[in-house]
Amino acid sequence: MCQYRIWEDLGAYTGQIVRLDPEGFPDAWFKNAIANLNLRRLDAAEASILAAMKLDPEGKSPRNEYILALILAGKNELESVLAHLRHYIQSDSQVADMARVKQQLDVLEREMASRREAHP
To answer: What pTM, to 2 d.p., does this model score?
Structure first.
């Protein structure tokens, strides 16, 4: 229950920030997406991360791609997950969790390949 409350509070706080100034705080959109992801509010999470990405047209925050991939995984949009994980790895060679992300990508690619074989 405590963790839920933390995510609720973060979502409420960042939601207020982006309502007051939708273009001034891309990091608030990012944190709002994470809060909604953890609360399993996937549509709200996706809308928030897309807003964060819109405010970052040069892609200076590649972690947005990873968060979007997690959201889309929750929505079972696996082809899109693959694309965003690949983009995340390619966009930042200094990804702190590179090994874990590559492992996730490998597992997902194998899963997609087996699905294609099962349903040609």
So the answer is: 0.89
